[in-house]
């Protein structure tokens, strides 16, 4: 889902670089042709041709100035040599590209990352609750197996004595619990799903 806004941001950035490159190229060609007629040739003209001498080269230069491959101030100085207005326009291009378009792309990915993180957190919470319920059901099943055909329910007073059985204690140790008389009421409360004051050891048919 993040690919669609990313795609349109890249399209916008590409169109911006293409259109601005056309303008820069036209101004550069007109300026250099005028200087050539007047016999003005200097090292700066050669640098300008190296950076903005063709449409592809202009697009490449514009891309590197906003992606860290080239200091945008260097390109701006070359354009200011041609026309101060071109230097100002170039500054606006850099500001719009970096502060608007690229920040939008960053925000899109950050937002999607936050959504995935929240989704993972929800899934982990569901899995934790499911694992807890499964463990509690296993406990009740073990209680029922040990109880055999005796009473179908355990009340709060009977529970502390009941869990002293070696088989029950072995199960507690297996799942990493240490249940004694002191903390038996807390475990009883967890197993008493309906708050009836008793634990049903068998489901009603």
Describe this structure in words.
The chain has 205 residues and is mainly α. Helices cover 75% and strands 3% of the residues. It has helices spanning 3-37, 43-52, 55-67, 72-82, 84-147, 159-162, 166-174, 184-191; strands spanning 153-155, 198-200. A two-stranded antiparallel sheet has the order 1-2. α1 packs across α3 (55-67), α1 (3-37) packs antiparallel against α5 (84-147) and α2 crosses α4. The model has no long low-confidence stretch (mean pLDDT 75).
Specify the oligomeric state: single chain
Principal-axes geometry comes out as rod-shaped
Helix share bin: over 70%
Strands across the major sheet, in which order?
Answer: 1-2
Overall strand count:
2
Q: Return residue spans where pLDDT drops below 50 for at least 5 consecutive residues.
A: none
Order of helices and strands: HHHHHEHHHE
Judged by helices, strands and strand pairing, the structural class is: mainly alpha
Q: How many helices in DSSP terms?
A: 8
User: What is the CA-CA span between the terminal residues?
Assistant: 48 Å
Q: What is Rg? A: 37 Å
- Beta-strand fraction estimate: under 5%
